[in-house]
Amino acid sequence: MLRRNIRMRREYLYRKSLEGKERLLYEKKRKIREALQEGKPIPTELRNEEAALRREIDLEDENTAVPRTHIDDEYAHAAEKDPKILLTTSRDPSAPLQQFVKELSYVFPNAQRMNRGGQVISEIIESCRAHDYTDVVLVHEHRGVPDGLIVCHLPYGPTAYFGLLNVVTRHEIKDKKAIGTMPEAYPHLIFDNFSTKLGERTANILKYLFPVPKPDTKRIVTFSNQSDYVSFRHHIYEKHGGPKSIELKEIGPRFELRLYQIKLGTVDQAEAQIEWVIRPYMNTSKKRKFLSD
Amino acid sequence: MADSKDAGEEALRRLIATFQPSFLAPNPALSETSRAASRHLFSALRPFCPKSPLDQLLIDGFDAEQIWQQIDLQSQPLLSSLRRQVKHFAKNPEEISKLKVVPLGKKVEKEQREDWVEESDGFDEELEDDEEGEGKGGEEGMDIEDEDEEQGRESDNEEESEGEDEEEKGEDGEAGDGGIEDKFLKIDELAKYLEKEEENFEKAEEDTRGKKGADDEENTEDDDDDDEEEEEEEEESDEDAEFGFGGEDAAGDMENARYEDFFGDKGKYSKKMKAQLHQESEGSDEEDDDMKFKKQNKGTASTHQKQLEKIHSKIEEMEKANLEPKTWTMQGEVTAAKRPKNSALEVDLDFEHNVRPAPVITEEVTASIEDMIKKRITEGNFNDVQKAPKLPSKVPREVKELDDNKSKKGLAEIYEQEYVEKEDPTSAPLSFRDEQKQQASVLFKKLGLKLDALAHFSFAPKPVIEDMSVQINVPALAMEEIAPVAVSDAAMLAPEEVFEGKGDIKEETELTKEERKRRRANKKRRFKAAAVKRMGKKVQEGALPNQMNG
Fold it and tell me: Which residues are registered as beta bridge partners of A87?
């Protein structure tokens, strides 16, 4: 089992390392294809390899035309298997944080909450791999207020680090009757204004935490991006009458997410490659938006 | 003498007893009474001022101003001597107890002071109300009222102020209760203030004149908002300064003042000369004003002088601040070690933040998000996870069906068929399953034909001609695993089909010499045996044809 894991990881890394070459090849093929379509002469730097590349172009089908990336490897099985999530906290959580984590375990379908106790992160990851979990979510706090969220996709998946702001939990709402119980149907998802590549990547990371829903569920989970702050909202809707009247009722916690790092490894791998990290002290960072245009 | 004295006392009593507002209207009888009372008081005080030129207050034919000046002539040296006495008592409190309290009229050397204080106490209590409201007003009203009234008033005021001074300069225990103290006048404060003034005055006698002037100025500045009593004190303190400076001389030193009095040694030039000059001029102005007993402004200095004063004090402060080391907030780069503990918490630090501030979730923001959600719902445009098309990962296994009918083929034919398959995989016959399929399709075609006939052959599909084709028992689709977890390298043949043998298999190169010899010997033996058998066969065969032919 261990040797199998090691081998699989090495294969994954090898394929990741090949990506650069594959991408080059893909670019060359693309240039040739364009030149052929437009009837222009083939660019001179590709003259030598042109024959071989042309043959490959003829032979490729839709699977091989697009180069496979490590992202596809990471989420290869995501569409087939339902995700299985483990939720836990930092060490020695306060009561409000525990309540928040309990709420989150209802938000994500097929999620399991676990007490942290004194476990080390590497232990947690090992046991999750062994039990076939797809994701681990850690929640951190500051004096009772949840302030950090770490989403780690499991086989060797990416880890996304978010900061939480403006957290409003269901426990804070005093009127228990008004809010009712949390429905457990698989929700529809809405991702709004994730237009850059990094935005797509983040949206994917969050998307694959949820399973495939039924088309007629009434439960909606929304991630709406506004200048790099992603708002999480959780609603139930009802359609009264015909004329496009929709009534939204907000349930569930509400918070803002702020992405500050994506790492290409699991949480316990400290030396994993950093895909993207926030740069708050750069002078132009105030003017730039990374998740949208 | 006694008569006059009695008359005087009588007058005083009558004056005290008069109805207060009657002083407002001119009244010759009242003025006579007040003059008599003043004279009486003057005479009473006469023994205490040995140097006074006047033995008696001259009231006949003199107007208010002149009487006032006579009183002043007597009171000024009196005040200074009183001061000295008070200081003496302050230093030696035990002497106070030696003083005896004597009722009005008795003249004992030491006790006179006490009387005096008592008397003035009583007097003060009566006239406190007047003075209180109108201390300044009274003097200002001088112009308004008649001369007679003025005289009476002035004398009253003068006496009262004297009395107050005495009271104030008396022991602290002598604080008048009830009528004298109210929210403006606090006797204790007055006493303390006077003592402070005297201390300053003492210092000034040793220091230069300028410093004293500065102190006075400051005092006057400080007391700007105080009430009239303290202003009076100031005046008196200034007056005393005058007097003190000139020693015990009578009022009249102002004319004899010299440069040295003001500026000390001519040779010395200190930094603050200019400032002092200004202060001096202010001081002298003030003294002149005092001497004229005009109370125009609070500090009795012109506005310009006061402004200049303020500016100079500010300049002094700023110069002093510049000489000291700066506060840590002004020092450029400051580490935590260089500033006092927790001082950064008190200061309002200002940074330029390079991150966009966190969004405040207002009603509008929530409404906009909800609108977007509603729009998406109506469109049905969700970003759900799409289910991937499920590719069959394995070929549907062939179900081995057991046919319990007797096999139509003989065993030899079965073996023959297997051999042919092994040699040439393409020549495999139809499997049981395929046979069934074929039968089913034939049946269906028949049925179809009949149905078409019923439908009058409006559509007659081309009849399918079946030709004999060999179907191979090999999976039609060999699927590639999406994520080959393990590539099975199991061969098509079972191990025993690959090799049949027993024992330890050794290769040519592994054999020892004996082994090789043994093998060769075995081979030879077998070859020989085979050769013999062949020979035997040939002989037999050779014999038969001979027999058949022959």
Answer: A113, A137
Exposure b/e, B283-311, CB count within 10 A at least 16 = b: beebbebbeeeebeebbbbeeebbebbee
| Tokens matching residue B226 | 């105080």
Whether A72 is in a domain gets the answer: no
CB of A64 within 8 Å of a chain B CB? The answer is no
As for the ipTM of the complex, it is 0.86
A42 and A98 share a domain?
A: no
Pairwise CB contact (< 8 Å): A228 & B361: no
User: Two tokens at A282?
Assistant: 């750069």
pLDDT (0 to 100) of residue A2: 78
Q: Is B356 on the interface with A (CB under 8 A)?
A: yes
pLDDT higher than threshold 70 for residue B470: no
pLDDT at A143 over 60: yes
Task: Answer whether residue B510 shows pLDDT above 50.
Answer: yes
**CATH number of the structural domain spanning residue A156:** 3.40.50.10480
Q: Return the SS3 of B359.
A: coil
Alpha-carbon distance of B168 to B181, in angstroms, equals: 11
CA B242 vs CA A20, A223, A256, B168, B513: distances in Å: 101, 88, 79, 20, 146
For the whole model, what pTM was predicted?
0.45
Task: List the 66-85 stretch of A: residues with Cβ below 8 A of B.
Answer: 76-80
Is residue A289 within 8 Å of residue A218, measured between CB atoms?
no
Does A129 lie in the same domain as A24?
Answer: no
Q: What does R_g of chain A's alpha carbons equal in angstroms?
A: 23
Q: Which contiguous run of DSSP H or E holds residue A146?
A: strand A145-153
Model pLDDT, residue B167: 45
**Is residue A285 a part of any domain in this protein?**
no
Q: Which of A188, A234, A240 to mutate to test the interface with B (most CBs of B within 10 A)?
A: A188
Based on the domain organization, do A125 and A226 belong to the same domain? yes
Mean pLDDT for the stretch of residues B210-235 = 48
Is A282 within a domain? no
Q: How confident is the model at residue B520 (pLDDT cuts 50, 70, 90)?
A: very high
With tokens 């009127």, the residue in question is A175
**Residue B480: alpha-carbon gap to chain centroid:** 69
Q: Which residues of B touch A286 (CB under 8 A)?
A: 354-356
Same domain, A35 and A111: no
State the DSSP string of B234-275. HHHHHHHHHHHHTTTPPTTGGGG--HHHHHS-SS---TTHHH
What CA–CA distance (Å, rounded) separates B338 from B336?
A: 5
User: Are B356 and A228 within 8 A, CB to CB?
Assistant: yes
Whether residue A51 sits in one domain with residue A92: no
What average pLDDT is seen over chain B?
A: 72
Instruction: Mark whether A62 and A91 lie in a shared domain.
Output: no
β-pair type (A159-168, A254-263): antiparallel
A246 shares contact with chain B (CB less than 8 Å): yes
Domain containing residue A198 = 83-275
Classify strands A188-192 and A219-226 as parallel, antiparallel or unpaired: parallel
Span B7-44, pLDDT tens digits: 888 888 888 888 888 888 888 888 888 888 888 888 88
- Residue B456 phi/psi, 5-degree rounding, is 60, 30
A and B: number of Cβ contacts within 8 A: 92
User: In angstroms, what is the C-alpha Rg of chain B?
Assistant: 68
**CB spacing of A256 vs B355 below 8 angstroms:** no
Q: Are residues A88 and A52 in the same domain?
A: no
Q: Alpha-carbon distance A113 to A129, whole Å?
A: 16
Residue A117 has pLDDT above 90, yes or no: yes
In a domain, A283, yes or no: no
The conformation of residue A221, written as its DSSP 8-state character, comes to E
Total domains in chain A come to 2
| Cβ of residue B387 closer than 8 Å to a chain A Cβ | yes
Asked if residue A110 and residue A10 are part of one domain, the reply reads no
> With an 8 Å Cβ cutoff, is A185 touching chain B?
no
